[in-house]
Amino acid sequence: MIRMAKKMEKAAIKSSGFDFIRLGFALFFLVAVLTYSFLSSGHIPNNMFLAIAALFGAYMAMNIGANDVANNVGPSVGSKALTMGGAIVIAAIFEGAGAFIAGGDVVKTIKKGIIDINAFGTNVDPFIWAMIAALLAAALWLNFATMMKAPVSTTHSIVGGVMGAGIAAAGFTIVSWGTMGQIAASWIISPVIGGVIAAIFLYAIKKTIIFQNDKVAAARKWVPIFVAIMSWAFMTYLTLKGLKKIWPSIVDIFVFLPDEKTPSFLTASIFGLIVAVIVYIIMNKTVAKRATNLHNTRDSINLLFTVPLIFAAALLSFAHGANDVANAIGPLAAINDAVITGGISAKAGIPLWVMAVGALGIALGLALYGPKLIRTVGSEITELDQMRAFSVAMAAAITVIIASQLGLPVSSTHIAVGGIFGVGFLREYLESTGQVERIEKQQINIEDEKRVLRAYSSELITLEEKTDKSKADYERIVDLYKAIDQEEERIKAAKKRIKSVEKVKYVKRDAVKKIIAAWVITVPASAVLSAAIFFMIRGIVL
């Protein structure tokens, strides 16, 4: 008992020591950002607001890394295609690269156009206060969600923050309620589409490979096709979402490309198709070589999806860094522009130091606090292997492509988690079809056992009522008692088997309820918190 207590004490000390180290790194980064922004803008009026905004922007970026990036690498870690350390390194590198390379030179100061900046008129101060409040509120909500191990949308967090601060500053008329309605619709659209597409791909893999007698031969034929489809989807996705901000520079280098400000779906699809053909040729040769060492088992076939999953995690991280870094630096860029120019603009340029705050903050937040959410996404919703994780990654890319062409608002977080729900519920459905047969067989067995039991009981009653029993009758009575006990045990065992079959759940319901609740309250929670912070700032300043 004493030894156990000492072990627990050592574990607690070790854990708390690591927590202090993480906190130390985080505080060092925040202080460095605050110091740099304050000293580099000392000649500018309102530079204190800019320094505070930079601090909150850095805090927001770290929370994006801690919460949102888990959706890109969680399935790969959960399926053991990547180790936790490997996933963090890959995600940190590609998130940062996506932010720096494709994050763009200009961002919209108001995310998704949810409020009308004209309502501020020429009054810059309330606008700056509103953006600071939005940043801090979104970051605080993400921090809380991460503590609760709930993957939520960082976009929805900043949208709620901007909306709440906007209402506090200029009233309810400032909000574009049609846009907010679309965002609310994405709570349903994103996970449903992601879940359906992930389930379709997993079922296709099972049908064409796993359910075949010769799994190795089926894998040689179909794995290159599935990976090629994934390559097309990711190249198209990356071109549409990750390269759109540097597309003019690409067009200048490759003059044969169409002269477009942003890549069209047709251009992105052609890019994807070219890459898919190349990948198919490579995978066809690779799988043919590896087939000689494969066994005719699911686990062996699973290994063929490991390398594609690593590429998927990297590409998803790159696209995420290019797009979602704006959630941290959009309001910061708006404040920087307002402080320097003294005006309010719908779009603002991004200084290199602002981009660095976003990119480094995301990478640092992932490294320090990302593992908690990575484990949640990767293993605490449903059990993932490489095939299931591959299907989730496919869903993430294809859903964004479909949604962008249909003009549907979607959340990458909701898509990824919805994809995990989808593969888990598909497993339950496929299992339940076999369960029905097993339950029916058990029920038939129970009825047969009951008929035998009734026959034994009837015979026993007849013998016990007999007045002139012979020795054989007494022996038969003893045998009947034993037989009845055995039949009752068989019936009990059969009923237990039915209950155990009925209890099979591959998706953890508590996790589903917690995550969906967090999704629903993200926007209103951020909005209320942001409004309160805005009033607090205004009260302090005025």
UniProtKB/TrEMBL annotation:
Pfam families: PHO4. It is a multi-pass membrane protein. Residues 439-504 form a coiled coil. Its main location: membrane. The chain crosses the membrane at residues 20-38, 44-62, 82-102, 127-146, 158-178, 184-205, 225-243, 263-282, 303-322, 350-369, 389-408, 414-430, 515-537. It is found in: Membrane. InterPro entries: Phos_transporter. Keywords: Coiled coil, Membrane, Phosphate transport, Transmembrane, Transmembrane helix, Transport. Belongs to the inorganic phosphate transporter (PiT) (TC 2.A.20) family. This is Phosphate transporter.
